[in-house]
Amino acid sequence: MISVGAASYSNGKDEESLVETWSQRTAEEAKEILDQDDVKVTSDKDKKIQLPKLMELEEKLKAMEPTIPSWTDEARGSDSESESEQSADEESEESTTTAPSFKVGDRVRVKESVTSPQYGWGEVTHQSIGRIATLRDGDCNVDFPGQKGWTGRQSELEKVRPKTGDKVVLTENFTEISDADEGPLTPGEVGTVTNVSEKRIEVETESGSTWWYDEDAIRGALLTDDETVTLNERTCTPFSNLIITPECVSLLLIGEESI
């Protein structure tokens, strides 16, 4: 508040008087004071026209969003909090959208949008499809053709849906998913994918029974060195990354045919 004219000689007393008189008054109280007879104005009709506008002004001010001047400490603190909240929201959203829920055995590949994986490419490319072997703290190990145990960030990967012919087993929590526990596949038994719909996977058991399973109820079957599979009616033992016999020429432990 700046005093001009004769008021500037009051050493701030006029300012104090104005603040004391009006700073804590409501519009209704101000209207009542200014409407008294001892308050003189140039034209009496000004009171009739202008004083009601005080009430209108108060209502308009109440309806407005409060604005804090940008140069104040309060505004700077508020902006900092807003930026922190926005950053946290973005991180949460990114975590949700870029790190899908994986399970051991899922078929995955590196997203096309990833140009440089955090831990490097190794022998892996965008075209490589592998199976998740382990999951831990946002990282994972994937068995790809040509590189077993590749390490990457889960957020860098995307799922590849099962396809006809894939070998699958039930997940550990299959009893909690849809009607999976009513199907013929038993825990640990390896089934074969025979059909794929938008959300369900048809699996055939070794005995020939079939069932449509929710995709979350099954995972890829991971073969170990001492497991055997039947290929073209011949029993082959997958071991390391070697081709065991001429009859099993297309069977590699981590080759495309086993993925």
Describe the strand arrangement of the main beta sheet, using strand numbers.
4-3-2-1-5
Distance between the amino and carboxyl termini: 79 Å
Beta-strand percentage?
Answer: 15-25%
The helix-strand sequence is: HHHHEEEEEEEEEEEE
Count of discrete domains: 3
Bulk shape: elongated
- Which radius of gyration do the C-alpha atoms yield? 37 Å
Number of helices: 4
Count every beta strand, where a strand is a DSSP E run of 2 or more residues: 12
Rounded average pLDDT = 77
Q: Which spans have pLDDT < 50 for at least 5 consecutive residues?
A: 91-98, 224-259
Helical fraction equals 10-25%
Classify the secondary structure makeup into a structural class.
alpha+beta
Write up this protein.
- With 259 residues, the protein is of the alpha+beta class.
- The chain folds into 3 domains: 45 residues, no CATH class; 53 residues; 92 residues, no CATH class.
- It has 4 helices and 12 strands; from the N terminus they run H-H-H-H-E-E-E-E-E-E-E-E-E-E-E-E.
- The strands form 3 sheets. A 5-stranded antiparallel β-sheet has the order 4-3-2-1-5, with no helix packed on it.
- Strand 11 and strand 12 form a beta hairpin.
